[in-house]
Request: fold
Amino acid sequence: MIGGLLKSSSRVALFAAAGMFVGGVAMPSAKAADLGGDCCADLEERVAELEATTARKGNRKVSLTITGNVNRSVLWWDDSHMSRAYYGLDNSNFSTRLGFLGSARVNPSVTMGFEILMDLGTGTGGTTFVANQLDEDGKRGTGAAMGNSVSFNNANSGSDQLFWTRRAATWIEHKDIGRLTVGRFESAGVVSTIDLGGIFMVASSSLSLINGNFFVRGPNGEYYSMTWGTGGLGDPAAVQGRSELVRYTSPTWMGFIFDSSIAERGDYWGSMLRYAGEFSGFRIAAGIGYERIRDSNTGVTLDPASPLYVGPQPDISAWGGALSVMHVPTGLFAQGHYMTADYSINAGNAATYWGAQSGHKDFEFWLIQAGIAKNWFGVGNTAIYGEYSRSSNAAANDFPGRNFAGSSAFAAPFTGTATQNFVQVNGVTDTDLTVWGLGITQNVDAAASTLYLGYRNFSADVTCTGATVAAGQCAGAAGGAAKKLATDDLHVVLGGMVVRF
Reply:
C-alpha cells in the first residue's frame, strides 16, 4: 500500500517537474525530455527498492504506531565481602520493550483498537533482575552456569526467546461509557507509588527488580539460601498482576478514574480508584485498590480425576494506596505508598501470586520518596531524590516458620537450580527489610531519553528458630527460643540511560 502511494506520489512529482521544465524559459524542451526520461527510470527503480524494504500496514482503516524503549545500565554492588560491576545489563525497572499500537474510529463516540507489548526475554542475556553475585547474565540451558528452569505466575508467558509477551489485548471505548479491554493486560488492584518526580527508572517502588536474585550473606562470608528480592526479603508484589483478563476503565470524571478486572477462571479479580489533578500550584496523584486471588499455578501433573488443582485453592486478599504531591513552581515533591496482603491459604497448596505459600504471615510494605525536579539546564527536568522503605514478613511463615533450603528459596530463572555450599536458613518467623537510597535523573527532552544514577542500601532483620546449627545461622533448638540471623548489608549503585521511540 505504501509502495503504491509512493509510486503515485512520484508520478505526480514527475508530471509537476516536467511542467516546470517545459514552462521554463531558460530550459530547451529537448533537454527537458532527455532529463525526464533519465529521471523517470532512476526514480522508478528506487521506488521499487523502497517497496521491497518498507514495513507496511495491513489496511488503511486501523492506525499503526510502533513504540518502545531501550534501557541499558551498569550495576555496581558490594555485599560487604566482595564487590563488582556488571556492564550493559537491561534495567528491569523499565525493561527494553517493543510495542505495536493501533486504533480506528467507528463513529464520533466509539473507538476500537489493540496493543501488543513485548519485553526483552531473559534468554537474550543479563538483566538486573536475574543477576546475582555468582552469575551476571542469567544464562540458562544445558551446561549453563546456573541451571535451566524458569517459573512465572503463568508458566506459558515466559520463554527463552528474544521477547516475551507483556500485553496482547484488544479494546473498545465509548467516550461517555469507558473502555473494555480483553486479553493479556495488567489487572486492576493494589496501587503502588505514582511517580510524579520522574525517578522510577532508578528508584522503582518494587525493591526486587534491581537485585531480585542477590543472595544474603553472613558475617563470615557465607551465602544463605535466601535472596534480597522476590522469593526472599523483598516485596512479594514485585511480579505485577498481569494475566488473561477482561478489564473495564471508566471515563475521567472530575479527575477520577475507576478500573475493575476479572481474570483466569474468575478466581482473580480486583478494582482500583485513581485521581489526578492540579490546583493552587500543587499537582496531586493518588489511588487505592483491592485484589482477591484464588488462582493457583498449573500443576506439573495432569490428572483427569483432579483437574487443575490437587488440594484446596489459595485465598489471598491484598490492598494498597498511594499518594504523590508536587509543588509545581518549586519542583518539590513527595510520594509513596502502603500495601498489605492477607494470606488465607489452605495447607498443602501454594501460589506464586504475592509470594504466597501455606502458612505465610501477613505482609506489609511502605515506601516514601522525596526530592526536587526542575529544568535547571534547559534540556529537561533534573530530579534529585532520597527514599526510605520497609518490608515486613515478606519471607516469614507462622510457627514453626519457613525453611529456606537449596533452590526452593530462589526466584526465576534459578528456581530448581542445583546448589552447593549454601547455608540453609530454617524456621523463619519474622523478617524486616529496610532500604534507603538517593540518586539523580536527567531528562533529555530533545532525544526522548533519561540518564540516571542511584544508590540503595539493603539491611535485613531475620528471626528464626531453626534446629540445625551452622555458621551465622539461627541456632535455637526445635521449638525453642527465636534467634536473630547474622546478616551483612548489600550496597547497590545503578547508572544508565533509556531512549524511547
Notes: The longest strand covers residues 425-444. Confidence is low (pLDDT under 50) at residues 1-37, 140-160. The longest helix spans residues 29-53.
